[in-house]
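Internal ticket - ligand job 462, 6-O-phosphono-beta-D-fructofuranose:
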Amino acid sequence: MSRLIVVSNRVAKSDATSKGSEGGLAVGVMAAMEKDGGIWFGWSGKIDNRNEEPKTETRGNIEYVTINLRQSEYNQYYKGYANSVLWPLFHQRPELMRYRDIDLSGYLQANQKFADELLKIIQPGDTIWVHDYHLIPLGKMLREAGIKNPIGFFLHTPFPSLDLLRTVPGYTKTLKDLMRYDLVGFQTEGDHMGFCMGIAQGLGGEILKNDKLRLGSLHCTSRVYPISVETSVLNGAAHAGMHTDEYRRLHSSLGDRSLIIGVDRLDYSKGLVQRCQAYDKLLGQNQEFIRNVVYLQISPTSRGDVQAYGDLAKRIDSEVGHIIGTYADFDWMPMRYLNRGFRRRTILAMYNLARVGLVTPLKDGMNLVAKEYVAAQNPEDPGVLVLSELAGAADELDSAVIINPYDVCATTGALAQALKMPLNERIDRWRKMMDVLENHDIHAWQSKFLGDLQQVTSSAVS
Ligand code: F6P
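stdout (structure tokens):
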């Protein structure tokens, strides 16, 4: 029987068990897999130095196979090379990169551990779909072990230009490893071009017809597949979330005030410092918003043991403290800042309640919060999305109020514009964005990628 095996570092379970801190990959892949099912292989999220067998658990039509990481694997692979080298580099922050040879070795060893466990599962006819920067070398390792099945790779983060990529020691290996997949997918045309230029200009490979690339004897196809959301169910889920205690309490605490919402992992790529500064200016320059708006920023702690994340957390504490100290009154808090997650339906209901969705990353692969905010709106009274032009989502959601997140004054202006926007303009902008999401949802993303993977592998055989 032909099965789909999805492989990612992080796996998601279900809304019922979620603590609400999963990022885009877990949420997006979960929605895609729930429909047709398959095996989802990845890290259990646990650190354990015993050599335990993988744990298998079936929920709905997804069979989860998860492995623990040893402390050294967590330190070198996850915290080290993946999140202290590839993540900052792919998000255009080379100054935050902390490269150590030992982390690169640990990254390769952890990929080999994933490969060794997968070899026990893979059967002829299976399709293997690897996700994200944690597992770039995995395809090569599976090929070297003799796996002939179709293997695709999708990168959820941005991919850098060649100039930036060159700052990573061993970057040529990253490019060559990607060439071992049959199909390599990116979120945007910019990311795809970065990869093609890396192969052509960086390694002397060739860009051929039909999105094919050649590097010596290696061939692969590379295309753009913007990830999306489960558009048709999000509005219903938002309504279900309105029955939760958290939503009711938020709703009644607001009174007539307009809600601005931001929901982001506490990550330096999300532009949270600049966002706080923009809100500070909004209150400082516009007396009309004093006491009339509330900004709710939900930011679950993420990768808190990586130094750059600890530094960011302190910086945001100070920005938020400044806003509250400057503008709060004994009966009004201008900002509410929470370092924890909520169940997805509660978050969706909060999106529905918010007059403004503030999504201002300094760099982001796609940003599914932007898409979910749009899909959760009330069609008769939608809120306004303020969106960074540096998020992949801006390529499609160009009817949002688009800002450059480094331009704090422009973000302040966009917030004021959004808060005052007349109903007809809100509906008009929302409808255009919703059309995009209705025409291209998460299921279209999955079937396009997997359809192309079948097509490129069968044409290579024939
Ligand atoms: O592609 C980025 C990603 O893998 C997304 O799932 C999410 O934005 C984030 O990284 C999750 O990070 P972590 O698995 O380290 O919590």
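Auto-summary: Residues 61 and 136 are 27 Å apart (CA to CA). The longest strand covers residues 38-47.
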